[in-house]
Specification:
With 573 residues, the protein is of the alpha/beta class. Helix content is 28%, strand content 27%. This is Amidohydrolase family protein. GO terms for molecular function: hydrolase activity, acting on carbon-nitrogen (but not peptide) bonds.
Amino acid sequence: MKKCVLPIVAILMLACTNKAEKGTIIIDVNILDVTTGEIQEHKDVVIDSGRIKSISEHQMNPKPYETMVNGKDQYLMPGLSEMHAHIPHPSENNEQIEDVLFLYLANGITTIRGMLGHPTHLVLRNNAESGELPSPRIFTSSPSLNGKSVTSVEDAISVVTTYQKDGYDFLKIHPGIKREVFDQVVKTAKQVGIPFAGHVPVDVGIRHALESHYASIDHIDGFLEGLVPESANVKPGDNGFFGYAFTPLADTSKIDGLVAMTKENKVWIVPTQSLFERWFAPITADELLRQPEMQYMPSKTLADWKKRKIATTGTATGFKTEQWLKFDAIRKQLIQKLQKGGVGMLLGSDAPQVFNVPGFSIHREIDGLLAAVLTPLEIIQSGTINPAKFFNKEGVFGQVKEGLEADLILLNANPLDDMDNLKDLSAVFRKGHFIPKVEINKRLAEIAKKNGHTLKSRTATEKRDAPLNGTWKYYSRKGKKPAASATFTRIKTLANGYWSMSETNILTNKLDSYQGGRYLRNDTIFSETNTFANSNSLYLLGETQLFELEVKKDTLIQTGIDNDTDEVWIRVE
């Protein structure tokens, strides 16, 4: 029978006999207030029924809950939003769609705005909301409105009315729509009450687009063309990739006027800067293919991305690095002035897209925004509170606040000190569902393997510990055979510095205990720190146990140093 052990961290002293409260508590955590940038230190956060039930000053001896998470020295903030996401077409298998949605979650993205809708995405949206599907919250556009799908005023009335009745969150505007047809799209959209967003058709132009009150303009589309003086007498259709061809003609003194128009008409901007630093940029496909996140995409997709990049920026395309540098500088100037000019900014990278891997590309986008001289807080706001304002959902998500849905990320360090700390997750919460880093790492390894890749270790420690990664089943105590009458199954997962262990009663098929956290390995010495636990293993929370470790092919032997746990495990995955 298990005995009560006082954990090392005094604040986690819990009586084994205490009845656990319903829900989850994050103990002694630092909260990032995304509205002010202030850090609220030493808070206890209770989550119940998918929402933040309470936030209070840390108690030295908090009540036990069904799930307890040690947040000491960690930072809690709202989950991020990817405001230019793509959900795979239903022609992809369901497993591939679920993998893409998980890649967003794995990077702390708890809300996505799908920018190329399909009827099946309405079903996915509902399944994500109900919790049936592990997924970020989904907002989805209609199918594309473009020069081929909407060719007349009559088409505009019919299509817009139909998509509004179908329940799409907004209309997706693509290139090619003629101005007369576009104006009818706008008129009908306002009549039936559905917003529209996306690209700026060449025949429409940026100024008319802004006056038409887009909900958002993505990619900063049309802005560079809007900097070309009328005296240049260009053909609008000769603009190239998002205005690249007009770069030498751009008059940057016109930027302030466009910024003022954007703010006046309350149009939000989704920069997708990473798209222009990866796909349309002087970096080779082979260099991009060597980046670690590519292992999470199917080989066929990567091959297609390579072809598309070469077709866009290869030697035969007329792409010039010198002109791109000016093009990129203008884009960064636009981003900076839009932000400083009070225009609403939304975090979005356009993924999956050429060499933009879902979830991972948001961190590439953040790097681009930092280079455009946005502050860490401004960038975090563009991915948290701003999307909530954009969707008129400030009472639902976007802050760590009582009553809001528990869409949260738990970080090992303060992101305001270094934005790379956003990559250093210890857990994600989606509507209160706790996803520890060990589960994220395990699923990522499975996705990489499924796509025909071997998970690449990025650090010397990861390479050394690679033989530990996987799922292990308890076999016996060291030196003994398993008891024939064993009534439990014990499973341990190790995944790049994180671990978890679950024990299930064979007779009832019910989970008994579940706990986990971080591990460290120093040659043959192995330590496990418990940072989360369920109500049946609370006595372990805060403890660190030391073992001698031996790995022999598919057998793992742990010999307790400061404890009497001498165990033999066999690999099952």
